């Protein structure tokens, strides 16, 4: 990942406006347990939630983690 996009394995630079990172579907076991998510001020999501409890805005967004959107997240319509 570069400042303006991505660099492919063959060395080509591809400029992008957005990168979508899909981590799969593991709603039963906790989809963040094996994933490292780093937000503002290099804060780890697991660290954030261990200090202040699991929280979200409308089950979709977490303060301090811009551009991270979660479907069916904590405190969402399903919980």
Fold and architecture overview:
There is one protein chain. The model has no long low-confidence stretch (mean pLDDT 80). It is built from one helix and two strands, in the order ββα. With 79 residues, the protein is low in regular secondary structure. The chain has one helix at residues 45-52, and strands spanning 5-7, 13-15. The termini are far apart.
In terms of per-residue confidence, which ranges show pLDDT below 50 for 5 or more consecutive residues? Answer: none
Which structural class do the helices and strands define? little secondary structure
Determine the strand fraction and express it as a percent band: 5-15%
Report the average pLDDT across residues. Answer: 80
Q: How many whole angstroms does the radius of gyration measure?
A: 15 Å
In DSSP terms (H or I, runs of 4 or more residues), the helix count works out at: 1
The tally of strands reads: 2
Helix/strand order: EEH
**Gap from first CA to last CA:** 35 Å
Largest sheet: 2 strands, antiparallel
What is the 3D form?
elongated
Binned, the helix content reads 10-25%
Give the spatial strand order of the biggest sheet.
Answer: 1-2
Concise summary:
It contains one helix and two strands.
Topology of helices and strands:
Blueprint: E1 5-7, E2 13-15, H1 45-52
Antiparallel strand pairs: 1-2
Give the tags:
two-stranded antiparallel sheet, elongated, 79 residues, 2 strands, little secondary structure
């Amino acid at each position: 990942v570069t400042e303006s996009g991505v660099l492919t394995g063959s060395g080509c630079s591809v400029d992008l406006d957005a990168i979508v990172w899909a981590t799969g579907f593991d709603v039963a076991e906790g989809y963040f347990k094996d994933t490292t998510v780093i937000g503002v001020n290099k804060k780890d999501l697991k660290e954030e939630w261990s200090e202040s409890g699991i929280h979200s805005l409308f089950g979709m967004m977490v303060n301090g983690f811009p551009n991270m959107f979660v479907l069916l997240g904590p405190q969402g319509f399903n919980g």
